[in-house]
Amino acid sequence: xxxxxxxxxxxxxxxxxxxxxxxxxxxxxxxxxxxxxxxxxxxxxxxxxxxxxxxxxxxxxxxxxxxxxxxxxxxxxxxxxxxxxxxxxxxxxxxxxxxxxxxxxxxxxxxxxxxxxxxxxxxxxxxxxxxxxxxxxxxxxxxxxxxxxxxxxxxxxxxxxxxxxxxxxxxxxxxxxxxxxxxxxxxxxxxxxxxxxxxxxxxxxxxxxxxxxxxxxxxxxxxxxxxxxxxxxxxxxxxxxxxxxxxxxxxxxxxxxxxxxxxxxxxxxxxxxxxxxxxxxxxxxxxxxxxxxxxxxxxxxxxxxxxxxxxxxxxxxxxxxxxxxxxxxxxxxxxxxxxxxxxxxxxxxxxxxxxxxxxxxxxxxxxxxxxxxxxxxxxxxxxxxxxxxxxxxxxxxxxxxxxxxxxxxxxxxxxxxxxxxxxxxxxxxxxxxxxxxxxxxxxxxxxxxxxxxxxxxxxxxxxxxxxxxxxxxx
Length: 474
Ligand SMILES: Cc1cc2nc3c(=O)[nH]c(=O)nc-3n(C[C@H](O)[C@H](O)[C@H](O)COP(=O)(O)OP(=O)(O)OC[C@H]3O[C@@H](n4cnc5c(N)ncnc54)[C@H](O)[C@@H]3O)c2cc1C
Known about the structure:
Elements: E1 9-11, E2 23-26, E3 29-32, H1 42-50, H2 55-58, E4 61-63, E5 68-71, E6 77-80, H3 84-94, H4 99-119, H5 128-140, H6 147-154, H7 158-165, H8 184-192, E7 195-197, H9 201-214, E8 218-220, E9 225-231, E10 234-240, E11 245-247, E12 251-253, H10 257-264, H11 275-280, E13 286-294, E14 304-307, H12 313-320, E15 331-334, E16 349-357, H13 366-383, E17 393-399, H14 401-406, E18 440-442, H15 453-466
Parallel strand pairs: 1-8, 5-14, 12-18
Antiparallel strand pairs: 2-3, 4-7, 5-6, 9-10, 10-11, 13-16, 13-17, 14-15, 15-16
Helix pairs in contact: 4-6, 4-8, 6-7
This protein binds flavin-adenine dinucleotide (FAD).
Residues 11-14, 19-21, 34-37, 170, 224-225, 254-255, 287, 289, 354, 408-409, 415-416, 444-445, 451-453, 456 line the site of flavin-adenine dinucleotide.
């Protein structure tokens, strides 16, 4: 927006910028709260270029390998990398009969990537026509299948099916109901790699704030928008929770799209995003995240580890469909100090462990359940990858769906906004140019194409195509 000539004021509810990528500084540890797997870094680079700068002057982005170390419940490991030959060997170790099918799957993922990412991720799906135009491609690419369904067509080994189908979870989708378009993530990772910035994702946040300020914009923290000001059906500014009113030519909401409509836009002007429709939408899963620092190092733990539990489809159905907090879990363990030791005091390690859980629809009382849940995860880590963990912890912090709801203003405490199913994608997702309010634009995970940094940055590209030129307001 700044590059387009707008004078931008960012209003942020929290006391510091970042949103899901907020940074917690505890006892000398730096814990990045959210995104850790940085893919398609060129989308970030593009923001620096638009501001007339080079990302490499501000950010030291390092490739991470393996992308993921996957640990099955029986202790078997699978190193998931972007190296075709190494991947073939890993697949062969697990299931020799599936090597040919795996290679065919990667070819399919590339074909889907070419349409799903290169052609469609930046299209403003503002009309039916844009949606109808893509139907033939979607049929050809078998988008009616689910991610797991498509993977299962190519490989037989159940463990391999899990390795190749977990990606939708990174953007809040259930592999058993998300359209197979999301298999493009496998190719996206292979093409551009997985990265992590020195200084953590907090370095990216500081860099982005500098870009905004360098353009003459400002970032005001502890400034919660209470409502979007309307004249008839037209937005003309916002009112903050302290009563301050700020006039604007246009309003762009990067808050959760469902929350924006439900709580910031007067119900009487909403024809498309009525309260009833918002209630009926399906929302992504919740997340339980435990950030912890240890007074020793666990050198054997990779930067990214996925620890699969005893159940896959059953657990996902508990999370997404039955909305119950299960006794078992699958975990993602983050050890950023594997790439940047300075994120923890000397001789220590910083971690976070994340468990996908149902969103607030489960009715889980996180105020009482969080600590017992954390304890179970701690015991599991101590019994597997991190012996003696209980005695090593010197920093600890947790977050859960109730916090996503109350602190980040996410509808139903969903970690990734509306669930990315076909009936809630593209034209069917809240449009980047509001259907209900003139002068209101929506960006971020709750719009097209969806959650995850590549999705959110692509939604900014869509925004660029739908906002008017500043000359319009002269
Ligand atoms: C734990 C976790 C791990 C993740 N890991 C990855 C990963 O490895 N890779 C990846 O690509 N993606 C990952 N994601 C997803 C990714 O982080 C998100 O999709 C993305 O950051 C969402 O960006 P956003 O700008 O849409 O929303 P947010 O980052 O949530 O920004 C919205 C902002 O709006 C503010 N706000 C809300 N309401 C108001 C209001 N009324 N007034 C003022 N401000 C308001 C919020 O405080 C927040 O700062 C992860 C997410 C989580 C939670």
